[in-house]
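Quick start: what a row looks like.
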Amino acid sequence: MRIILLVNWGLGLEVLKSLRHLPDVEIALVVTQYQKGNLDQWFNAVYDYAVENGYRVIVQESASFEYLREMIIKSNIDLLISHAFMRILPKTLFSAPKYGSINIHPSLLPKYRGPSPTEWVISKGEKVTGLTCHYIDEGIDTGDIIYQLDVPVEPNDTVGSIIERQKNIVAPLLAVSLSRVCDRNFKPVPQVSEFASYAPRLNTRG
């Protein structure tokens, strides 16, 4: 399976690392953020790791949607995977890969859609959160659900401590999700809009 990644921050790095160890997976391109001199240890984490390990990398501001679509078609990309990529992908792009495009979202959708789910999980006093792998569609985190795994939320948790716990479930989430994406008999679960909530931007590391 040939994959293109649009990922950022610490969970995005874990996505890249986990895919690297899956059999029959080839990462054809990594699109991520980069800012020289940024002191946040996670801001350039995906870029630095991808370069150090010989992946083809493009800084996200330099990658137009049309360029990515053409690359997907010419390179026979099977799947696009995103996480914390803060631009809405057009249908012409997310529908271009053979198996479509999927997103790893750091909440149990349909609760806490949007860019700051973990901040809101804490502020709302939730006892559990997790990761959701879902298909990308024209909405914001509204696509059909492929797989979910949960993690507990402890009383003294911070955004950072929850993210560290979520990193532990990235690999199993991806392993199951990729097998389901390739399974012609698999039927993803539509999100129930009545249970949906939206998390406005408080922190872009989700």
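That is the whole record. The CA atoms of residues 64 and 201 lie 24 Å apart. The domain at 2-195 is CATH 3.40.50.170 (Rossmann fold).
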